[in-house]
Write a structure and sequence with these properties.
alpha+beta; 10 helices
Amino acid sequence: LAPEKLELKKGAKVMFIKNNFDRGYVNGTLGKIIGFSDEKLPIVRTFRGENITAMPESWRIEEEDATKAEISQIPLRLAWAITVHKSQGMNLDAAEIDLSKCFLEGMGYVALSRLSALDGLKLMGINDEALLVNQEIIELDEILKQMSQEAAEYIKKIDIQEKRKSQKQFLCSLPQVARSVNEAGFGKQKKEFISTYQKTKVFVAEKMPIEEIAKQRGLTEETIIGHLEKLKEKKEDIDLEYLRSSKNRFEKIKTAFQESDDWLLSPTREILGKDFSYKEIRIARLFLRK
């Protein structure tokens, strides 16, 4: 949903198109442009009265923890109007919805279920097809329920050895597993795989700066910091001390997090001011958050 070219001005109605719980927004958060930061980044006042500076985010296609493709863009789009189909996956605070021209079953459900609360809904119109459920889906649902019941009864009857055999046969039928699992016991070696997080860990072991790691790996700095957060979450043995801010600045960031009583970046940045970047705050959080 991110437009290749994003043009914004003060007063424009916008919508966030990516989840970032740390920054305080989700896919579908609505707001208005109230200005621009010193770095020319748009400042959005959300419907809930929060001011958020929209920073570039990354969208990645990953396979087996390896990044195959990645783009970076400010996660906003103009929000004067959007189609029902484009709204899928969003969480909207408020919306005016016109269902008078629905042409597929389920469109009404998709549109109405985007809203987080009914008091944010203004329904402009509706037709007979808006809330219909596809008959083929109803029939398929009944078939799946019956198949599930039959499978449950079958599993109850077979012994543990037969269950394990069936599990192995199923796993080995999956393409990704079949490449690395020895199906026939002929001594094939399991394919060694290094995740994208472990690749970043190698550079950290060399005490390489974030910006240099990003350059070497062809990723954004935000993505690299995300890898560090993932490694910490997995309790990997990594030494990040060389990335820590000076004692004075680190203590200020620590105090700001305590004052905000949350781990979100935006409230902490508002307390600290523009002298502290989101990057520095996010790195400091690596040492504070358990």
